[in-house]
User: Which sequence fits this backbone?
């Protein structure tokens, strides 16, 4: 496993009382949300790219998403999992081309309607994202974005830190 680099947690637009496990640049989140609402009958999904780090102050692990690749509009989470089974090689090639210094840090799913992630999101995560630091970004309707990670037989949700766009 690749060890996380030491780095201070980024400053967020809206400071939170909790420490987020995922930080996303504002323009990236805006694009993900737009993709999820662009076709209300579809779910937008893709791979988050960036880096994983260890906080210099408290030693806690966190992920910073600076972009995404392999975006697709699909019927549901299960269909996105099937899409990745076929498109994984091209997604990693897009990563190397567009973000040569980045790594796949997780996945995102965005949709027009609010709602929680379900068992299909857990299957997606466990199928492709087996590093303990990899994380999902769930953007449903106008609800605040949520960081999603496996916890036992289910998923746990946490706030996302939004970082000012560069």
Assistant:
């Amino acid at each position: 496993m690749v060890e996380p680099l030491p780095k201070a947690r980024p400053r967020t637009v809206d400071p939170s009382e909790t420490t987020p496990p995922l930080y996303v640049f504002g323009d990236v989140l805006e694009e993900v949300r737009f993709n999820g609402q662009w076709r209300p009958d579809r779910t937008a999904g893709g791979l988050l790219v960036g880096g994983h780090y260890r906080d210099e102050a408290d030693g806690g692990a966190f992920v910073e998403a600076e972009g995404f690749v392999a975006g697709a509009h699909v019927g549901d989470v299960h269909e996105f999992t099937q899409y990745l089974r076929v498109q994984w090689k091209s997604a990693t090639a897009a990563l190397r081309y567009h973000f040569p210094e980045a790594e796949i840090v997780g996945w995102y799913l965005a949709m027009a309607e609010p709602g929680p992630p379900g068992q299909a999101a857990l299957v997606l995560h466990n199928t492709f994202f087996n590093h303990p630091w990899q994380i999902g970004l769930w953007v449903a309707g106008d609800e605040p974005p949520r960081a999603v990670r496996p916890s036992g037989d289910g998923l746990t949700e946490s706030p996302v830190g939004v970082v000012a766009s560069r």
Remarks:
- The longest strand covers residues 61-74.
- The two ends are 29 Å apart (CA to CA).
- The helical segments are 26-38, 77-98, 119-128.
